[in-house]
Amino acid sequence: MATPTPDLPWLAALEDPAAYPHPADEIRVLHTHLSVVALAGEYAYKLKKPVDYGFVDFSTLEKRRFFCEEELRLNARTAPALYLDVAVLRKTPAGWRFAARDGGEASTPAGTLEYAVRMRRFADNERLDRLADHGQVTDARIEELAAQVAALHANSVVAQGERARTYAQRLAKAIENNFKALPGTERERLLRRLFDERLAAEAPLLERRGGEGRVRECHGDLHLANICLWEGRPQLFDGIEFSEDLRWIDVLSDAAFLYMDLEDRGLFAGAQRFLNAYLEATGDYGGLGAWPLFVAYRAHVRAKIAQLTLHAPGVPGDEAARQEAVRDRYLKLAAESLAFTRGGLVMMAGLPGSGKSTVALKIACTERGVRVRSDVERKRLHAMEPKLERYGPELGARTYARLLDCARAAVEGGQTAVLDATYTRRAHRKPVLDLARELGVPLRIVHCDVPMNELVERVRRRAAEGRDPSEADEAVLRQMAGSWEPFSDAERPLVRKA
């Protein structure tokens, strides 16, 4: 149950430059439904409102202190340059004043202090939602961001025991809590049915992923407004500290928030580029069956936040109307994500250096697709079994089997699987045709056909640059050229030139 409007005796003091132990000529005070943020000079002070919304409880001073410390701990993982310490705001004879903690808080009379997370201040126009509004979120920045999210997940603590086993139930509870905050119209009842159907369908996958170590201590609130540029690099900040259930989640659910935010802003190609870069870094294609559920859940979360904001005390009428429209937009996106259809299959074909990977990524980014690269997956498999010959038949067979497994998961998650390999032999191509028939989805073969002299030049140049995942040299190129098998009668109608 939500608390009434909180009493904030220190609120007016935040606009007083004398309250800060540093120059604070320029002060701005911002409100959210959970916090008050004072932007003062080179620093920002984030204070928690004494509220209890059920899903978050800051109702006592001790809880606010604890969650300030948690916020500092968690966000130091991704933005250590921004998060500095937990400061104290004390009531003194001269008024409320910020100071570093001295350990004497326990003896301070009630009502005479408050806690704040102290951060370095960054420019408003360097928040990624602002950059996105001005078309300044580049492909390179999206790929760098995907690498940072992948690194966070790789280094996060893995959930154990009940916390891992109960993830599906915790997700269902979180969705139920979202609905409790929403109006309860016929639209929400229809959406609830879609969620229930998808939760039931994906429960075995979610349970399996918990056992595989895919439930971890994540960011929890990974949208563009919680990412900024600091010294030119993206920084993930403002991760969830107040709820373990909203933070100990499936890593793909964490990544889906950013994808959803890009999609909501009409940046469809950017959303797909983020997903492709993230999956290439993590290899986590096996969870894509639950991807529509995760994206819908993230839109649902934002709908709930808009609903809470439009009914927050003191919100002017025009802002309430805007938030109502935002809520409805997110509810529509959630329903669309849950009402997905299976994706399709694209099989690239061509020799090393023919440009397959470039074409494959372009298809993936424009057709709601996921590129799966044989060069990357071969390396991933070789790292697990380094005794296998890198371009030998056994590792080759395992690589092509891996591509099929990834393709199945992508198609079942509503994505078009773009299989990026040479596919020089019919024996490697036939299973892809069989998979398309089994899944009942369309297949096309994109043939990248480049003259041999140009391929040799490209392979040599690529080797000299040393940036490409492919390790196919000129010898491998010529070997593969010699083993090329022409397209069969069944394949030819499916072939398109790149």
What count of domains describes the coordinates?
Answer: 3
In total, how many beta strands? 15
The CATH homologous superfamily of the largest domain is termed: Aminoglycoside phosphotransferase (APH), C-terminal lobe
**Estimated radius of gyration:** 26 Å
Would you summarize the structure shown here?
The chain is of the alpha/beta class. The chain contains 17 helices and 15 strands.
What does this structure look like?
With 498 residues, the chain is α/β, with parallel strands linked by helices. It folds into three domains: 12-121; 128-338, Aminoglycoside 3'-phosphotransferase, Chain: A, domain 2 (Alpha-Beta Complex); 345-497, Rossmann fold (3-Layer(aba) Sandwich). It has 17 helices and 15 strands. The chain has helices at 61-75, 128-133, 139-155, 161-165, 167-181, 186-211, 244-247, 251-264, 268-282, 291-310, 317-338, 356-366, 374-384, 393-412, 426-439, 452-465, 474-482, and strands at residues 27-31, 35-40, 43-48, 83-92, 95-100, 113-120, 215-217, 227-230, 233-236, 248-250, 345-349, 369-373, 416-420, 443-447, 495-497. The chain has a six-stranded antiparallel sheet, with helices on one face. It has a five-stranded parallel sheet with strand order 12-13-11-14-15, sandwiched between helices. Helix 3 (139-155) packs parallel to helix 9. It is elongated. The relative contact order is 0.08. The model has no long low-confidence stretch (mean pLDDT 93).
